[in-house]
């Protein structure tokens, strides 16, 4: 995978990241996770995006270059990882929502809990980061430079397996069809509508 693969709008890159692999080589060991669920966030054009109101110190990584990792804390509790996409200077990123641990399962389980089922090790964006060992210190990591956090191509995913739906838990633009996931995969998180969303309102 290279910059050219990611230098497109988030909603185009998000389905292409299904089947790709995120790897973190930490002092305690290596964990690799195959991505099974993503969500696209289109920057200043997207009311649900962190970059909707423009660049800030928090969201600066979203403005490029493509191929970097944007990491933020959700509700002060969980780290969430996003792959920056698009053109340098224009905010665009894909949230990695879930995946299947394909290397380092023992280490992932140690981070997540000994009784956690295999399918739940990296289900949900916070769990994904916890299993992979990603924290705020990895914000702005270059995923394509061969550092400790890497994004690589995995096995091709048949188009027939890709499903599209509304994003999970967002209150604005909640009905945008920007969530992509693998049909029938047990690692994919369950859909839930934010209690703050207005189902009768349009995008």
TrEMBL record:
SUPFAM superfamilies: FMT C-terminal domain-like. It comes from the Bacteria. Keywords: DNA damage, DNA repair, Hydrolase. One of its GO terms (molecular function) is DNA binding. Its EC number is 3.2.2.-. GO terms for biological process: base-excision repair. This is Putative 3-methyladenine DNA glycosylase. NCBIfam families: 3mg (TIGR00567), PRK00802.1-3 (NF002003). CDD domains: AAG (cd00540). It comes from Streptomyces pini. Gene3D superfamilies: Methylpurine-DNA glycosylase (MPG). The keyword DNA repair applies. Belongs to the DNA glycosylase MPG family.
């Amino acid at each position: 995978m290279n910059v050219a693969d990611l230098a497109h709008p988030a909603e185009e890159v998000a389905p292409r990241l299904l089947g790709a692999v995120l790897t973190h080589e930490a002092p305690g060991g290596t964990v690799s996770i195959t991505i099974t669920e993503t969500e696209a966030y289109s920057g200043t054009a997207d009311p649900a995006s962190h970059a909707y109101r423009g660049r800030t110190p928090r969201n600066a990584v979203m403005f490029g270059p493509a191929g970097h990792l944007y990491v933020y804390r959700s509700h002060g509790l969980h780290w969430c990882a996003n792959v920056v996409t698009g053109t340098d200077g224009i905010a665009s990123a894909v949230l990695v929502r879930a995946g299947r641990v394909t290397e380092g399962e023992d280490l992932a389980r140690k981070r997540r809990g000994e009784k956690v089922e295999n399918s739940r090790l990296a289900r949900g964006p916070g769990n994904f980061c916890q299993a992979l060992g990603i924290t705020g210190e990895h914000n702005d990591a270059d995923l394509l430079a061969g550092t400790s956090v890497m994004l690589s191509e995995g096995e091709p995913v048949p188009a027939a397996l890709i499903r599209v739906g509304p994003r999970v838990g967002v209150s604005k633009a909640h009905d945008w069809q920007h969530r992509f996931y693998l049909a029938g995969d047990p690692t994919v998180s369950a859909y839930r509508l934010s209690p703050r969303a207005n189902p009768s309102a349009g995008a």
